[in-house]
């Protein structure tokens, strides 16, 4: 069933997204000046870059909401090939940029791009298009399961080489959920999860710092000055926020205590400044986003838009809750940023572009 009748888009989803971006800019303004001064000699380096990202992202959101969603289906193979080509560029000298032993960025003049963020969305669009064309064969081993495994395997190699295992984890979880939504069998999902755990085990075995992260998760009180430092300082920040928080701009842990206060630890600074109440409200906003996104998916006019809306929603929400879980000690540390909130203009632009696509689908819901 396809509907051509247009109506108003989902303004609750849009409003929630706009609030996220505003909250993100405010908390980066508070959390990053010390870091900006010490790393770049510029207090508002992080804020100005994020504000530029937000501006470009808003344009991407508006464009995404104007382009009819079916268009992405035709473009899906080209988008994925283009994204994977950019993933190769990160390894080319004078184009790729290496930071802390990871090759994840491309530098073009003053602009730094993180191709993994583009690849995440491109793969979800491709997967949604593939699932729609294969809808009768998804449950078959040779026609559905095997091709899905091969596609996921090829894309995974690019992430493992960078290495960016955190982002890969989010993409794999989202892809498996989409495969299930598209008609995959429970036995196939179980097999995928077993394979995933085995591969993750191998990665942890060959990368000692990942073993450390797992050790910290299992024994959070051990080595709080060494491998457990980030989690320990993050929990101090959240705990000292109490019920109502210290107040905006009043965080003490951002003064070189919490590592990456504008990055993957930003939720800890937010918790310190806005307290338990603020943290609950922020978490509730992500749940509202999830509800509206899945509602758009459930009412989508066709198979492609149904899967694509679910994929975009899950990509954003799985990452957000993985970040919150990691910094509160409920999950192992991943180094993943908090969606919409943490510093990272590539991620912000791509997430806002994704919301634009969701907004377009919401105009055609039943």
From TrEMBL:
It is an enzyme of class 2 (transferase). Pathway: Cell wall biogenesis; peptidoglycan biosynthesis. Pfam families: FTSW_RODA_SPOVE (PF01098). GO terms for molecular function: lipid-linked peptidoglycan transporter activity; peptidoglycan glycosyltransferase activity. GO terms for cellular component: cell division site; plasma membrane. One of its GO terms (biological process) is cell wall organization. Its main location: membrane. It is a multi-pass membrane protein. It catalyses: [GlcNAc-(1->4)-Mur2Ac(oyl-L-Ala-gamma-D-Glu-L-Lys-D-Ala-D-Ala)](n)-di-trans,octa-cis-undecaprenyl diphosphate + beta-D-GlcNAc-(1->4)-Mur2Ac(oyl-L-Ala-gamma-D-Glu-L-Lys-D-Ala-D-Ala)-di-trans,octa-cis-undecaprenyl diphosphate = [GlcNAc-(1->4)-Mur2Ac(oyl-L-Ala-gamma-D-Glu-L-Lys-D-Ala-D-Ala)](n+1)-di-trans,octa-cis-undecaprenyl diphosphate + di-trans,octa-cis-undecaprenyl diphosphate + H(+). Its EC number is 2.4.99.28. Keywords: Cell cycle, Cell division, Cell membrane, Cell shape, Cell wall biogenesis/degradation, Glycosyltransferase, Membrane, Peptidoglycan synthesis, Transferase, Transmembrane, Transmembrane helix. It is found in: Cell membrane. The chain crosses the membrane at residues 12-32, 44-63, 75-92, 112-131, 138-159, 165-182, 189-207, 266-291, 303-326, 338-361. InterPro entries: FtsW, FtsW/RodA. Belongs to the SEDS family. FtsW subfamily. PANTHER family: CELL CYCLE PROTEIN (PTHR30474), PEPTIDOGLYCAN GLYCOSYLTRANSFERASE FTSW-RELATED (PTHR30474:SF2). NCBIfam families: ftsW. This is Probable peptidoglycan glycosyltransferase FtsW. The gene is ftsW.
